[in-house]
Structure formats: C-alpha cells, structure tokens
Automatic annotation (TrEMBL):
<keyword id="KW-0479">Metal-binding</keyword>
<feature type="binding site">
    <location>
        <position position="178"/>
    </location>
    <ligand>
        <name>Zn(2+)</name>
    </ligand>
</feature>
<keyword id="KW-0862">Zinc</keyword>
<feature type="binding site">
    <location>
        <position position="7"/>
    </location>
    <ligand>
        <name>Zn(2+)</name>
    </ligand>
</feature>
<dbReference type="Pfam" id="PF03352">
    <property type="entry name" value="Adenine_glyco"/>
</dbReference>
<dbReference type="InterPro" id="IPR005019">
    <property type="entry name" value="Adenine_glyco"/>
</dbReference>
<feature type="binding site">
    <location>
        <position position="182"/>
    </location>
    <ligand>
        <name>Zn(2+)</name>
    </ligand>
</feature>
<dbReference type="GO" id="GO:0008725">
    <property type="term" value="F:DNA-3-methyladenine glycosylase activity"/>
</dbReference>
<dbReference type="InterPro" id="IPR052891">
    <property type="entry name" value="DNA-3mA_glycosylase"/>
</dbReference>
<protein>
    <submittedName>
        <fullName>DNA-3-methyladenine glycosylase</fullName>
    </submittedName>
</protein>
<feature type="binding site">
    <location>
        <position position="20"/>
    </location>
    <ligand>
        <name>Zn(2+)</name>
    </ligand>
</feature>
<dbReference type="InterPro" id="IPR011257">
    <property type="entry name" value="DNA_glycosylase"/>
</dbReference>
<dbReference type="GO" id="GO:0006284">
    <property type="term" value="P:base-excision repair"/>
</dbReference>
<dbReference type="GO" id="GO:0046872">
    <property type="term" value="F:metal ion binding"/>
</dbReference>
C-alpha cells in the first residue's frame, strides 16, 4: 500500500483532501477562477476553510456561478435574497464587499487586460516556490501579501487583508507552500 504524504492541514476531511490534491497551489491564470478564489477567500475571514468548502457549491449557485459581470450589477434586492439564503455566508458586509470587489475586479481587467496579468505581475509571472519543512513554518502573511493587499484596498477591494491575500496567493499558485515531503510540491513525483 502506497502512503501519500500531504500537507498536514489537508488530512481532516475529503473536501480538504480533494481541494489540496487538485487545486491548492496550482498556478491558475483564468480570470473566472481567480475571481471565485478571491471571493471565497474573502468570505472565509473569521471562518474555517472547511466551512467554505462545504458551502462552495451553494455559494456558486447563489452567486450566479461567480460571474463577475452579474455580481457587479447586484442590487439591494439581491443582497436581501442572499441574506435570507441559508446556503451562503449571511454576512451583509461580506455580501456587499463581494459586489464591490466584482466592480473593482472589472476595473483591473479594463486597466491590465486581465486580472491574471495584474496579479501575476507581482511575482514576475512565475510562482514563488518555498521549501517549508512543516506546515507550522508556513507564514500567514508576507511582505508581498502586505503589498498586494494594500494595492487591492487602494483599488476599492474589501475583506482582503494581508492574511486573506496570502491565502489567496497560496490557493491560486502564486506561491507554492506545499511542505517539502508533500506529493503535490513542485518537483515531487510519486
């Protein structure tokens, strides 16, 4: 029997394991996926990642498949619908931030051609590959996440502090924080 070594945080449940094995740390350049990840990370503030993963499908449905164009046009009536939807994170400020973030996301797309070009420019378009021995060694934020968070905030984004931005960077592969013995770490083969 082959034992697969993963980052310790991914061993709690099947959803976390699947997310770790198939998404976390994989470089992503697709604006739609980047937007979804950004929104999910902003929704996670104060909650466990497991909670977000459990609600991911219902969040996707409630937020029109995380369609940035649709979300940027949400009205107060839509906010009230979301506030009454038990399948989502019913936090008014987070819902309003999602709308505001969609509008800011579109402005970046207009300025840079894509959000991908904007966000990947912070790492010169190639992932930062770290070599952490244990998950406890992985920082919750860095100078770079401070810089990105500050820039996003200056562009109108909300609920994207440095810790949330670092989690986003990890999720979309701007940084590879798989620990050195994890099978998903860049350069590791089974």
């Amino acid at each position: 029997m082959v034992i697969i070594k993963r980052c310790e945080w991914a061993n709690s449940n099947d959803l976390e394991e699947q997310y770790h094995d198939n998404e976390w740390g994989t470089p992503n350049y697709d604006d739609a996926t980047l937007f979804e990840s950004l929104i999910l990370e902003s929704m996670q503030a104060g909650l466990s990642w497991s909670t977000i993963l459990k609600k991911r499908d219902t969040l996707r449905k409630a937020y029109d498949g995380f369609d940035v164009d649709k979300i940027s046009q949400y009205t107060t009536a839509k906010v009230e619908l979301l506030m009454n939807d038990e399948g989502v994170i019913r936090h008014r400020l987070k819902i309003q931030a999602t709308i505001s973030n969609a509008q800011s996301f579109k402005l970046i797309q207009n300025e840079y051609g894509s959000f991908s070009d904007y966000i990947w420019s912070f790492v010169d378009f190639k992932p930062i590959i770290n070599s952490w021995e244990t998950i406890k060694s992985v920082p919750s934020s860095t100078e770079l996440s401070d810089k990105i968070s500050k820039d996003l905030k200056s562009r109108g984004f909300k609920f994207l502090g440095t810790t949330t931005v670092y989690a986003f960077m990890q999720s979309v592969g701007l940084v590879d924080d798989h620990v050195v013995d994890c099978f998903r770490r860049t350069g590791i083969t089974n």
